[in-house]
């Protein structure tokens, strides 16, 4: 299993890593830039880097399917694996379209938030063994209940038709909120993916493990080019794909409680963004000495960190990654104990 894991990870990592220099060059020639808002000089940086993540992730998953189908080296439920894969790729496509035309064509905020619902359809359609639904202070709901006129209704369908799309949409939009600094979104998502990779391996959830491992390889490779000073941005393709990937792994791996806990920083970000009616960005105000100053109205965790001292962009990101690492360690420890 160690060799198979290494092959899947390395396939995803190296294709992402190898494609990025070529992609950066082509994007520069095409003039597809984004402005690095956290630099005093406001340099132009190629965006659409999420394309490389799609290539790398796809190669990792396809290799795993090849090892299962033709060499019989690993046993996988291809229906579940391909449902998760399809959801993630659909989300990535939505992110790519948003990167290309979204803000230019005036896609409204509520439309942007609801678009990922369509990408959840593959996971909604596939039958997945999910845990019983628990209501706080009440306990688990019965599998079925009889209602006059309607007859017997299965509570399990609530999971597939309601909770799955909420999870995909919520996670995708969450990872899209706490972003905008060099290495921030790719770093946060990588830490969560690493935790889910370990958790799914321990519980022998092979489909979740393959998806997590393939995503992790791609994100770590991308982080090398996105770290300060960033040579390329991932755009909405990266953030939406990362969030959908996390949600998909949690759903097919039966790790809902761990998944929710790992998103703790994003829940805090949601509350801070809500204070500004979701109008605030995560950017700081760049100073001549290279530090970032928080705006007057706090609308992001990045602003909270900036208020703590005179930090550079790299230091702000490092602090937030350290916070996420602590959340991951606590969450993984609780997962093992309970």
TrEMBL record:
InterPro entries given in the database record: Glycosyl_transferase_4
Q: How does it sit in the membrane?
A: Multi-pass membrane protein
- Gene Ontology molecular functions: phosphotransferase activity, for other substituted phosphate groups
Segments traversing the membrane? 6-27, 48-68, 80-101, 113-133, 145-166, 178-202, 208-225, 316-337
Q: Name the GO cellular-component terms.
A: plasma membrane
The main location class comes to membrane
Biological process according to GO: cell wall macromolecule biosynthetic process; cell wall organization
Q: Mind listing the UniProt keywords for this protein, alphabetically?
A: Cell membrane, Membrane, Transferase, Transmembrane, Transmembrane helix
* Span of the signal peptide: none
Note one Pfam family from the annotation: Glycos_transf_4
The source's domain of life comes to Archaea
Subcellular location per UniProt equals: Cell membrane
Question: What is the protein's name according to its record?
Answer: UDP-N-acetylglucosamine--dolichyl-phosphate N-acetylglucosaminephosphotransferase
- Protein's organism: Candidatus Iainarchaeum sp
